[in-house]
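ok so dumb question maybe but i'm new to this and my supervisor (M.) told me to 'just get the structure for PTS cellobiose transporter' and walked off. so i did the thing. is this what she meant?? sequence i used:
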Amino acid sequence: MVGAPAAADAVARARRLPNLRVGLHVVLLESRSVLPRDDVPDLVDADGHFRRDMVRLAFEIFARPRVRKQMQAEVAAQFSAFRDTGLTLDHVNAHKHFHLHPTILSVVMDEARKAGVRGLRMPVEVAAVVDACESGASSPGSRMTAWWAKTLAARARKAGFVVPDQVFGLAWSGAMTASRVAALLDRLPDGDTEIYFHPATADTFPGHAKSYRYTDELAALTDAAVITAAKRAAASRGGFLDLDAT
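this is what came out, is it supposed to look like this??
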């Protein structure tokens, strides 16, 4: 999130970890814009924070050329800000998966092409796998999201992007505990899988999501049972650039 308060610290840490795969999390909701408020007045409030009314904003981006132009400029500015870090761009996704909006997706893919990046997240979560790990964990909403994401994933692949076959992290967003992750690793479908987390060393901080168990997610990533399950899965691990190379 190149416009977030801790971006500079994150970049400094990433520079100390040259093998870390770093992506751009395009943000059009709930954080701060990269461009000045006067350049994107329809996207932000008086303090320069993005709007929170996601549904209305999605409609306006589709129906109002003025808003759409501001969205295009902001997305381009975020790609430019990432380029200025000097880090290698591994992949692109968006806050709250807002790139599932076809108009936003078109802009993201255009900017990704310019940046030379081909990795793109499409949240195609396999409900049957989630429910096998924990009965009833998936929801009709997540299944509809997966159906739409799968449709857009086909579009992205046709355009030359590298998109994993499935993604996990939606149904348990903010609650990817060690037991859930270990169960998931024991049931990985064939193909390329992205598993995403929201790890942190504290559960409350400026901008935290209520009910998210950040510290539990961090603990899951280093849990002995999870590490054992990952080894048992015999899956190759890496980032989107590693998928591109296979």
